[in-house]
Fold:
Amino acid sequence: MDKVCAVFGGSRGIGRAVAQLMARKGYRLAIVARDLDVAKAAAAGLGGDHLAFSCDVAKEHEVQSTFEEIEKNLGRVNFLVNAAGINRDNLLVRTNTEDMICQLHTNLLGSMLTCKAAVRTMIQQHGGSIVNVGSITGLKGNSGQTVYSASKGGLVGFSRALAKEVARKKIRVNVVAPGFIHTDMTKNLKEEHLKRNIPLGRFGEPTEVAHAVVFLLESPYITGHVLVVDGGLQLVI
Ligand code: NAP
Structure:
C-alpha cells in the first residue's frame, strides 16, 4: 500500500520540514495551504510526484473537497500531519473577538475537521497515523497568548480523546508540542532576550521538530502521547 500523507501547513516552516523529511523516506505527499503558489513551490522542491492543494482548514467544505482531490490524485490518505496554524498575540483585554475566532478556527477546529475526514478514510483502510502540532503554550500557558494557548491546549484534549476513540481501528493520534522554532511565525520575536530562558540556549530549527513528528507517525505502539520539543523550556516556565 502507498504511504500517502497530507501535510496541512506543509508549504512553510515546520510543516515544510516534515514534508521534506517524509519525501526522503518515500511517502507520497499532499502539501496543503491557503496560498497555492507557495504550496506548489514547496511540493516541486521535494522532487518526485508530490502535489499541492489549496485549502483553508477552517472551512469544512474546503477540507472535504481537498481530501476528495487528494484521494483522486495521490490515493487514500493514511498519514496526516496538522501543522497549519496562526497566532494573533495580544493581551486578552486587547484581543478582539475576530482574532479569537480566527485562532480557534484555524488551530483547533481546523485540526478537528482534517482529523474527521482522515479518520473516515483510515477506518476503511484499517489503520492510519495522525500527528497534530500543538505548542508548549498549550501545556504551560503564556502571557500574551491566552487564546493561542487555549487553541493548543484544546488540541491536546482533542487528540488524546480521539486516540482513545480510534485505537481499536488501528489509528494512532499523537501531538508534538514545540517551543520557540525559527519560522515565519517567530521572525518578529526578540530572540536574544527569549533564548536566555531556554536551557539549551537557542531557538529550535524546523527539521528538529520534523524528526519528532515523523518518529510519532511511525511508532506503532505510541498513541495519545504529547512529545515536547522545546530545548528544555518546559523545565523553567
Ligand atoms: P508558519 O511558518 O507561519 O507556517 C504556517 C503554515 O500553516 C503555512 O503553510 C500556512 O500556509 C499554513 N496555514 C496557516 N493558516 C492556514 C489555514 N487557515 N488553512 C490552511 N493552512 C494554513 O508557522 P510554523 O511556525 O511552521 O507553525 C506550524 C505549526 O507549529 C503551527 O500550528 C504553530 O502554531 C505551531 N508552533 C510553532 C512554533 C514556532 O515557534 N514556530 C511553536 C509552537 C507551535 P498559508 O499561509 O498559505 O495558508
Summary: The longest strand covers residues 171-178. The longest helix spans residues 97-124. The chain has eight helices and seven strands.
